[in-house]
Design a protein that fits this description.
Helix content: over 70%
Oligomer: single chain
Order of helices and strands: HHHHHHHHH
CATH superfamily of the largest domain: Tetracycline Repressor, domain 2
Structural class: mainly alpha
CATH architecture of the largest domain: Orthogonal Bundle
Amino acid sequence: MDDEEARTRLLDAAEALFYAEGVQAVGMDRIRAESGVPLKRLYRIFPAKEALVTAYLERRDQRWTASLREAVAGSADPVAAVFEWLGRWFSEPDFRGCAFLNAYGELGAGPAGVLDVVRRHKAELRALLGDLVGPDREDLADQLLLLAEGATAVAALTPGPAPAVRAREAAHVLLNASRVG
């Protein structure tokens, strides 16, 4: 196994375990055991747990954001497409809320690398929503971000598409009100 394969195995194990059980509940030895990567190599690739958590979140951000962008690309109603995509995500059997806020909730502002990834992820989601509603509509993009984040938090407690459906309905109220005003 080369370092690239080892890195992939470590990130796959970290993502499955951290998302399902939490960052603090999972030790590096458990990551090693699940990945099949020797402990010495694990620490050579990720010298500290913070580095592994940061890499896990960065990789998740890339996949998550790319999937969302793909879902809204070419949609006649891209804002609705965001909430429809969220509804599908909320319905996945292993859905456990927002990995970024979960990690931040566990670790707080301590690990700078983790906090940076969380902030970048949220800024990227905000930018995507801003692109969808157009220029000079920052307030509307901020409101849509709150709807998306709120729906995600509610869905973490009650999985399924209903929070996304309600958030989509609220988004349309906001969009219609912004056209009138």
